Amino acid sequence: MSLIGIVATVWLGITGQLGLYIHPRYFAFSIIMAVVAAAVVIVSFALSPGDEHAGHDHEAETGHKRFWAGASSVVIAASAVALLVLPPTTLTTTTLEQRDLNGSAAALTEEASAKLTGGDASKFSVKDWASLLRQGAGVEFYAGKKAQLTGFVTPDQDDPENVFYVARFVVSHCVVDAQPVGVPVYRPGWQDEFPLDSWVGVSGGLTANPSVASSEGIVIIPEVVAAVDQPQQPYVY
Amino acid sequence: MLLTDSAAAEPSKAAERGGERARGQRRGLMGLLLGLAVLALLAVTRMSAPQSVAAGMSDSAKDFVTLAVSVLIESLPFVFLGIFLSVVVQVWLPDGFLLRHLPRRGVLRRFAVSLIGVLVPVCECGNVPLTRGLIMKGLTVAEAMTFLLAAPILNPITIITTYQAFGWDNGILVSRIAGGFLIANLIGWIYSRHPRQDTLLTSQFQAACASEGEHHAAAGKLQRSVRLFTKETSAMMPALFIGCAIAGAIQVGIPRDVLVTLGTNPVWSVLALMVLAFVVSICSNVDAFFVLSFGATFLPGAIVAFLVFGPMIDIKMLVLMRTTFTTRTLVQITSVVALCSAALGLAVNYVA
After folding, report:
1. Between chains, do B80 and A45 touch, taking CB under 8 Å as contact?
2. Residue numbers of B between 272 and 301 with CB closer than 8 Å to A
3. Among residues 179-218 of chain B, which lie with CB inside 8 Å of chain A?
4. CB contact set of A223 (below 8 Å; sequence gap of 6+)
C-alpha cells in the first residue's frame, strides 16, 4: 500500500503534475520522503517474513481474519484505482459552487494593493484583478486598463445568461483548502460558445456592469474570448 | 517467546547456522527482486493508464477523487516522517533515555511531554506513529495521549503560521496555544486516574507492544528498523487511506453554505466551525491560513475553537487513532476535547 502512494507521488513529481494536489513548497519534501520510504519498503521485502508470524497469529479466529483480508483488499484495489489508474484532474465547478467564489479574504488581500495599483495592468493575474475588484475602486480607476486573463469558465449565480467568471483556484497548502477567485466577464450567450469548466483566455477593458441582474459592479467587456488548453499549472498560489 | 528461551536454544542452533544463512541470503535476494518487480508493475500501471478512463465520471465523483488524493498526497510524507521518528525513538534511543530525562511527578511530567512537540515539528498525522513509538518505549497511555493532543498545536511551525495569519488579533494565537496545552493536560490527567490503562488500547496494538520485546536480541538495529517501519506502515496505511476517502466524500457531500450561514451567531458560529474542522481534516501547520478565509464571517471565538479542536480531533485523525486506541476511549476523548474547545470558543466570544 505504501508503494501505491509512493509510486503515485513520484510519478506525479516527475511528470510535473504534483501541483495538481499540493503547494509547490512541499514538492521536494514529498518526493524525498517518498523515495526514502520506497527504499525501506523494498529492503523490507528482502527480510524473510517467516519469523514475523510467531507472535500474534495464535488467537485470531479464521472467520474474522478472512473478513479483514477481504476488506483490506477492497481498500487496496480502490486506492490503486484512484491513485494509479485515474488521470489526475483539477477541481470542477461543482466544488466551486460549494466554496463561495471570491468569498475568501485570505486568498485575496494578501497581495499588497500598492503593488497592484502601481503595477503593469496587463500582467495582472486572475487573483490580482479579483483583489482589486474586491477593494471596490471606482470605474475611473479601471479606465484605460486592460486585463489579459486565463481561467476556467463558471457562471455568475445571479445572471448566468450574460455573465460568467474567468476563475482559478488559489491553493495555500493542498487542494482541500483551494479557494476560488474569479473576475466577471460580460458576454451574453457565452454558454453557447464555451462549456462549463473549459479553459478560456480573455482580454478586454473593465467597466461598469451592463447586466442588471448581476451583483458585480465592474466587469470585463471582452474584446477576445478564446478557448485555450488547460495550463500546466492550473492553480495559483 | 521470552528472551531466555531463545538464548537457551542458541548453542544447539549454531551448527545449522551456516547453511541457513546461505539459504537466507538467497531468499533475501528473491525478496528484493520481488519488491522491485512490484514497484515496476505499479509504475507501469501508472504510466500506461489512459487519460480517457475518467470520461464517464460525474463532476462530483471526480472532485471526490481529487480531494481524497490531495489529502493523501499531502499527509503521506508527514506520516512517513512520523514513522521514521517513531522508529528512531524505539530502536536507536537507548532504553530508559526518555524516561530518565523527564520529571518524575505526574503533572510536571505531562507538562514536559506536551512540550516534546516543540522538538519534533510534525503535524498531527505524523504524531500517531510517533505516539505509538512512545508508548512502546514505556510512556504511560495517559502521557502519550497528552503528547498526541498537544504536539500539533505546541509546535513551532503551527505557532509561526498562526502568527502569520492572525498576529495578536483578539488573542487568537494566545488562546490557541494556552487552550491546546490545557486541554491536552486535562485529558492526560483524566486518563492518568484510569486504573487499567492497557484497556484503553486496541488488542492489536497491545499484541504489537508485547511482541516488541522478542526481537531485541535477535536482529541488528538496522534490520529491526526496517521491520518496524514495515509494521507501522501496514498498520497506518489502511487507516490513512480510508480516512482520506471519508474526508473527501464529506467535503463533496456537505455544502459549505450551511456552515457559513451559521457564522454570525456567537453560539452557532463556534459549533459550525468545529464541525468544519472535524470535516476538512486539514493539517495543523496550515489550518490557520485556511480558517483565515472565514475570518470575515466568523467571530474570533469560533476561530479559536476551530484552531484548537481541528488539530486534536478530525475524521482522518480518528481513523488513524483507531489503530491504537479503542473506540470507547476515542469517543470519550472526542467529547471532552469538543466540550472544552466549545467552552473556550464561547469564552473568547464573550470577552471579545
Report:
1. no
2. 280-283, 285-286, 289-290, 292-293, 295-296
3. 204, 207-208, 210-211, 214
4. A203, A204, A205
CA-nearest of B313, B301, B310 to B266 is B301
Using alpha carbons, select from B130, B127, B171 the residue that is nearest to residue B285: B127
Q: Please indicate whether, in this complex, the C-beta atoms of A21 and B280 are within 8 angstroms of each other.
A: no
CB contact under 8 A, B42 and A89: no
A212 part of contact set with chain B, CB < 8 Å: no
pTM of the predicted structure, to 2 decimals: 0.70
Give chain B positions within 8 Å (CB) of A32: 77
* DSSP per residue, B261-330: HTTTSHHHHHHHHHHHHHHH---TTTHHHHHHTTTTTS-HHHHHHHHHHHHH--HHHHHHHTTTB-HHHH
Q: Are B38 and A54 within 8 A, CB to CB? A: no
Closest CA of chain A from B74, distance in Å? 6
Q: Which amino acid is at A194?
A: F
- Nearest-CA distance A107 → chain B (Å): 7
- In chain A, the residue whose alpha carbon lies closest to the alpha carbon of B83 is A37
Return the SS3 of A154: strand
3-state secondary structure (DSSP) of residue A164: strand
* CB-side neighbour CA atoms (13 Å) of B114: 26
Asked if A87 and B51 come within 8 Å (Cβ–Cβ), the reply is yes
Per-residue pLDDT of chain A (237 residues; tens, 9 = 90+): 666 767 777 766 666 666 667 766 677 777 777 778 777 777 777 765 544 443 344 444 456 666 766 777 777 777 777 776 676 777 766 666 666 666 554 445 544 454 555 556 666 777 777 777 766 666 777 777 777 888 888 887 777 778 888 888 877 666 766 777 788 888 887 777 788 778 888 888 877 777 777 777 778 888 878 888 877 777 776
**DSSP annotation string for B116-167:** HHHHS---HHHHHHHHHHHHHTT--HHHHHHHHHHTTTSSHHHHHHHHHHHT
Does residue A225 belong to the interface with chain B, where contact is any CB pair within 8 Å?
A: no
CB contact set of B139 (below 8 Å; sequence gap of 6+): B98, B99, B113, B147
